[in-house]
Amino acid sequence: MTPRKLSLLLAPALLAATATTALAQPAATDPEVPPTVVAAAAEPAPQTNSWDEVSHINGQLVPVGETNSYLKKYRRTNISINPVGMIVGIFGVSASYGLNDHIALRGDVDLYRMVDSNTTGSEIGVGVPIYLRRTYQGAFVEPGFIARHFQDNNDYAYDCYDCGSSESKTVGPQVLVGWHSTWDSGFNVAAAFGFGRNLNASTDSGDQLFANGYFRVGYAF
Length: 221
Fold this sequence. Notes:
Helices cover 13% and strands 43% of the residues. It is mostly beta strands. It has a single domain (63-220), classed as Beta Barrel (Porin), CATH 2.40.160. Strands 3-4-5-6-8-9-10-11 form an 8-stranded antiparallel barrel. A two-stranded antiparallel ribbon has the order 1-2. β5 and β6 (119-127) form a beta hairpin. The longest helix is centred in the first third of the chain and has 22 residues, at 3-24. The protein is elongated, with a radius of gyration of 42 Å. It starts with a helix and ends with a strand.
């Protein structure tokens, strides 16, 4: 076999070997694969207190006594009194019942035995507080109706002309605006102020309008 024939036979084999080597090498345009970085897991903070000892809602910390501000549910019945009024001679009790998430029905009875005064009296009132946020929580508007009876026992002046007992009656609608705060324990505080119209007053007496309000501390259950 001559050298010329040998070269003709080896040429296809050399071409095949060259193509195989080129395919085995990575292309110049192939992107480099970045190395995988494994992040170390952060250690959890040490638990200093049991969750039963911490005020929270679904694991979210809430100031003690204020979880009620974030809940839609509420205690329907509320009984309250006026502790300041008892000092000056106003004794009474108020009861409320939540009809739904924003409306309650309230009734109260009060007796007046004012300190250092000959005035005695009684009061009966009903109201429908409408809460803008949630029953027993936040601002409210309270339309209602009130009936009062007061009596002045003027029997102290021996030379007084016409010093007999006098009485006054107030009967009519009223509208109060107030604020109610309730804590997790059920204890709550409510204060309201507004005006009413005395339907029992004569047109020329000047007493057709009257002011009214209350401050009460109660317990809801």
